[in-house]
Design a protein that fits this description.
The protein is globular and about 55 Å long. A hairpin with a 2-residue loop joins strand 2 and strand 3. The termini are far apart. Helix 1 runs parallel beside helix 2 and helix 2 packs across helix 3. Helix content is 31%, strand content 16%. It is of the alpha+beta class.
Length: 116
């Protein structure tokens, strides 16, 4: 995936449908890449100034999907797929489930019985 091209395309489509894009220094205890903010009469997408181009693609794709623009005519097939997946890029393999023993809760064993 050519990230710069996809980012430029997502930016063009977002601005074309009237979204305001703002790059900001986002602070707080929980680091954020940004996201869609709905205010009366306008929609703003905040993008972290520290975010990589791929992370900005993810935020823009998620915002376009949330607003129902996955099928926008200005999106290429690659960008459309990213928007349909709400910013999650395709990977070669599905995630593997974690194996191994799991801890019990508050003194309970893995079968849900009290340990003696």
């Amino acid at each position: 995936m050519d990230v710069e091209r996809v980012l430029a395309e997502l930016t063009r489509v977002a601005e074309g449908i009237g979204l305001e894009l703002q790059r900001r220094q986002l602070r707080g205890n929980h680091p954020s890449l940004g996201g869609l903010c709905r205010l009366p009469g306008r929609n703003i997408v905040l993008l972290s100034a520290k975010a990589t181009p791929l992370e900005r693609c993810t935020v823009l794709a998620s915002a376009l999907a949330e607003l129902g623009h996955a099928g926008h005519a200005g999106l290429s097939a690659e960008s459309r797929l990213l928007v349909e997946r709400r910013g999650r890029p395709l990977t070669g393999e599905p995630p593997k489930p974690k194996r191994g023993p799991r801890p019990g809760l508050a003194g309970l064993g893995s079968e849900g019985r009290r340990r003696l």
